[in-house]
Amino acid sequence: MLNILVLHGPNLNLLGKREPGVYGSMTLNEIDKLLEQEARSLQVKVSIQQSNHEGVLVDAIHAMLGQHQGLLINAGAYTHTSVAIRDAIAAVNLPAVEVHLSNIYRREEFRHHSFIAPVAIGQISGFGSESYRLGLQALVNYLNKN
Ligand code: DQA
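Above: the input record for the complex with DQA. Below: its predicted structure, written as tokens.
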């Protein structure tokens, strides 16, 4: 069975309380439940982690080798700053899908650039918690075809 790593980056632990007008009222725990439900219907396994620390996210990507076949990642603000996370994804050379709750292109200019996008298969941005579900579907679809 395919095993997908789901990584949530900084501040996403505060979902539900954090800027609900931008990010919605769903908590991270509720998003994880939604992903587990979607994983069951896609017949894949998901391992889910959240960290506020760049190096912890880098270590989690390295630890995919031999364990996971694909990565679903919302790197939060590290999307716009982290060469290290981008390099880790390139290093393990496993398919990754980038997701965002908000549409990063409708927001401040500094959110328009992603360091992750060039090493991802694709990006889903702007659909709230549905971005995660759509991202998981796209990743599993890709893995089943390749
Ligand atoms: C985010 C968008 C980022 O710009 C922001 O820093 C986040 C959340 C999103 O899911 O919309 O923390 O990745």
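Notes for the reader.
The first strand starts at residue 3 and ends at 8.
The pocket of DQA is lined by residues 11, 74, 76-77, 79, 100-102, 104, 111 (CB under 6 Å).
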